[in-house]
């Protein structure tokens, strides 16, 4: 087998047009002629076989799968959005709750800080207990830091329930 035979066989196998030199080689070479004849027979066999008919509901099933995939991606995006919003609300609530301590944390020792937080928490409990009737009907937190933190803790289950409601409503899960 010569180098020209390899080029001709490769061109025939890839259904490429032969150059003039390759056509002359095909006319003279018996091996290349036999290969070309076998390819022609194969083409005839494939041409004689009828093509299978596609299923009647092919378009409908493909479009249904595409719609399902798009809906799944949309549910995933909504779920990420719901989690992101919940995290943002909790982060904002924590930032608002600890806003007064932001500058003083680095200046206080851990003991003073924990003692101060404990005292503020207890003071906040008293404030919340005393003002419970005043702000129970509204959603505004008390002025005290510990009271605000307690308000956040009390509000967290409501946020989780709202998140669960929207997850179920949007069918995110």
Outline of the structure:
The protein folds into 2 domains: 3-48, no CATH class; 68-169, no CATH class. It is built from 6 helices and no strands. Mean pLDDT is 71; it is low at 99-108.
Task: Explain the overall architecture.
The chain is mainly alpha-helical and 173 residues long. The chain folds into two domains: 3-48, no CATH class; 68-169, no CATH class. Helices cover 75% and strands 0% of the residues. The protein contains six helices and no strands. Helix 1 packs across helix 2, helix 1 packs parallel to helix 3 (30-48) and helix 4 runs antiparallel to helix 6. The longest helix is centred in the middle third of the chain and has 40 residues, at 58-97. It is elongated, with a radius of gyration of 39 Å. The relative contact order is 0.07. Mean pLDDT is 71; it is low at 99-108.
Features:
173 residues, mainly alpha, 2 domains, 6 helices
Q: For the report, how would you describe the main beta sheet?
A: none
Beta content comes to under 5%
**pLDDT averaged over residues:** 71
Question: How far is the N terminus from the C terminus?
Answer: 65 Å
Indicate how many domains the architecture comprises. Answer: 2
Cα-atom radius of gyration: 39 Å
- The percentage helix is over 70%
Which structural category fits the helices and strands?
Answer: mainly alpha
Give helix and strand order, one letter per element, not per position: HHHHHH
Number of helices: 6
Globally, the shape reads: elongated
Based on DSSP secondary structure assignment, what is the total number of beta strands?
0
Q: List segments where confidence is low: pLDDT < 50 over at least 5 consecutive residues.
A: 99-108
